[in-house]
Design a protein that fits this description.
This protein has 14 helices and eight strands. It is of the alpha+beta class. Strands 1-2-3-4 form a four-stranded antiparallel sheet, with helices on one face. Strands 5-8 form a two-stranded antiparallel ribbon. Helix 6 packs antiparallel against helix 7 and helix 7 crosses helix 12. The chain is elongated. The C terminus is likely disordered.
Length: 397
């Protein structure tokens, strides 16, 4: 059979010896291209050619050959070319890619990943027992990668991540302690040096990486404030690394409730080395704190069960502090005290005045004083259970 060509205003159709139809056209670069597939019916080929013409007219065309790059290769390049990412974010992205994305889709060319493929991939993750929260994180990462491929690099014509609700996390409600439970948890710490850790974390709304990175120079001598200027993150292959706070809003000074300032002063006096860069909280031998070592050291599961909160995580102390501070405080003031930042709210919640932050601290202090007045507690005087009153610290840069 002789090749038959159908001349058109844009592109051309050619009937091959097999009888199937081939679509040919010139791209924006002037090169003549044939799409990889052929068509049994001429009208299907015509429809495809019209779609390509429309894409070119709307500047929505992607070179089919460039779209053949494998997702694994493109994703690695995508992460590498984002030097502004925090080390912890880079580590999270690589873990999500390795465990959930590349494992299933890594060998697929970008232009073969359809919405149906993405839907099946997500369903596979969830059916294998992956939580909705982690599935949402993996989906958002894949969507961001393919958005770059579609919009910036023009490797594909559209982002196939179009699943409604797949990006939403459905985290379970976390426990909130009462003031009495926070104070009881502090008293149940088997070593006195960690009582202040519980109180500062809860009543100043700090993250684990923020409170464990505090140095003597970050805490007022009279215990009236703590300054968050850095955080510790634990990186695979590098160990603990001191980095800037989680966000711009994370760098802040937090007023300490007056009721727990005696605890802070006593801790500075008895358990912190005199150097200005000495860590406020350390492991028993003076090294920086690691979450995986802290829980077994203080028998966390036992002590949280003892206050009636068996599922409590350390991060729930921050959640508790935020909740206790909320009544009477504006959202703007709360977000600033928490060190919370978001793309939409950054400009709105960026600053809170010292007066407003002190007002939040005063309300928290009143709650603590009210409970201690009822129970007759006297903070900072019980030395039982401590293995030494001071620590020799190793400064961490």
């Amino acid at each position: 059979m002789v090749d038959k060509k159908a001349r058109r205003r844009f592109g051309s159709l050619r009937q091959l010896p097999s009888g199937r139809w081939q679509v040919r056209y010139r791209g924006p670069d002037g090169q003549l291209r044939s799409i990889p597939r052929t068509f049994e019916k001429k009208r299907d080929a015509e429809r495809t050619l019209s779609m390509i013409e429309s894409q070119l007219a709307q500047d929505d065309w992607a070179d089919p050959k460039r779209g053949t790059v494998k997702l694994a290769d493109y994703a690695e390049q995508w992460v590498t070319e984002r030097p502004g990412l925090r080390p912890s974010t880079t580590q999270l992205y690589r873990r999500l890619l390795k465990n959930y994305v590349v494992l299933h889709l890594g060998e697929m060319p970008l232009n073969k990943i359809t919405t149906a493929v993405v839907r099946e991939w997500r369903a596979t993750l969830i059916s294998a027992g992956l939580s909705q929260t982690m599935a949402a994180k993996a989906y958002r990462l894949l969507r961001a990668i393919l958005m770059t491929a579609a919009v910036e690099d023009r490797l594909i014509t559209r982002n196939p991540c179009q699943l409604r609700g797949a990006d939403k996390e459905h985290s379970e409600e976390r426990p909130v302690l009462s003031v009495a439970q926070v104070l009881a948890l502090a008293e149940l710490m088997p070593y006195r040096k960690y009582r202040a850790l519980i109180l500062i974390t809860a009543f100043c709304s700090l993250r684990w990486g923020e409170v464990t990175a505090l140095r003597r120079c970050d805490v007022a001598l009279d215990g009236s404030w703590v300054r968050i200027s850095s955080q510790f993150i634990d990186l695979v292959g590098r160990g603990l690394v001191r980095t800037p706070p989680k966000s711009r809003a994370g760098a802040r000074t937090v007023t300490v409730p007056a009721a727990i300032r005696p605890d802070v002063i006593a801790h500075l006096r008895d358990s912190v080395a005199p150097a200005s860069d000495a860590l406020i909280f350390t492991m028993l031998r003076g090294g920086p704190m690691r979450r995986g070592n802290f829980n077994p050291l203080v028998k966390w599961a036992k002590v949280v069960a003892g206050i009636g909160a068996p599922n409590l995580r350390f991060h729930d102390l921050r959640h508790t502090g935020n909740t206790l501070a909320a009544p009477g405080a504006s959202l703007r003031d709360l977000m600033t005290r928490m060190g919370h930042d978001s793309p939409r709210a950054a400009m709105i919640y960026q600053h809170a005045t010292t007066v407003e932050d002190r007002a939040i601290a005063d309300r928290l202090s009143g709650l603590v004083d009210a409970h201690r007045g009822e129970s007759g507690d006297n903070p900072g005087t019980d030395d039982e259970g401590d293995e030494g009153s001071s620590s020799v610290l190793v400064p961490v840069s």
